[in-house]
Design goal:
Length: 184
């Protein structure tokens, strides 16, 4: 297991912890993502991870794919989570050659980038449903290091909001959230 895959798995499990504690009545709560409910955010995260699963299992470029059925958000999430973790745990998967998302040369490089989506949306979902995110500072620092050089492209492509200036001595989570257009 590489550091990229460790970070990715940690990001998925952080998101999982918030999903598992989310009350059924909270899925319609608004999130920090404009126009998205908690259920919309979960569907997006499932789509991203389903895309990662498709890339990992095929070794070919694949896009995000929403679950066919979101009537039970918890069940849709569990299926997505289990599928992506199983797909990435197969011999040779991480070394498959791309290019893949964000022009990543290998699946390992791709998951080292894509972890930022799960980390960001862990915070978003926690805010929406009134939970603590429990994000680890080292994981957030790894995301910051990956996203900082890509920030302009992420803003221009609409993947994040405009960068919000944050003091250099602010906690890493605050600096990361500012980088992806959120305010702690």
């Amino acid at each position: 297991m590489s550091q990229n895959s460790r970070n990715f798995v940690q990001a998925v499990l952080a998101f999982d912890a918030v999903v598992q504690r989310t009350d059924d009545n909270a899925w319609q709560n608004a999130t920090p993502c404009e126009g998205w409910t908690a259920a919309d955010l979960l569907e997006h995260q499932c789509a991203v991870l389903n895309g990662v699963t498709a890339v990992a299992t095929s070794g070919k470029m694949a896009g995000p794919t929403p679950p066919a059925d979101m009537s039970d958000p918890q069940a849709a999430w569990r299926e997505t989570r289990d599928s992506v973790l199983l797909a990435l745990d197969q011999q040779g998967v991480l070394g498959q050659q791309g290019p893949f998302w964000f022009d990543a040369p290998t699946v390992d490089d791709m998951v080292g980038i894509v972890m930022w989506d799960a980390v960001t949306h862990t915070w978003d979902l926690a805010q929406a449903v009134g939970q603590h995110h429990a994000l680890d500072d080292a994981l957030v620092q790894a995301c910051h290091a990956v996203i900082a050089p890509m920030s302009d492209m992420l803003v221009e492509s609409g993947r994040t909001g405009p960068v919000i200036p944050v003091a250099n001595d602010a906690p890493i989570l605050d600096r990361y959230l500012g980088l992806v257009g959120r305010q702690a």
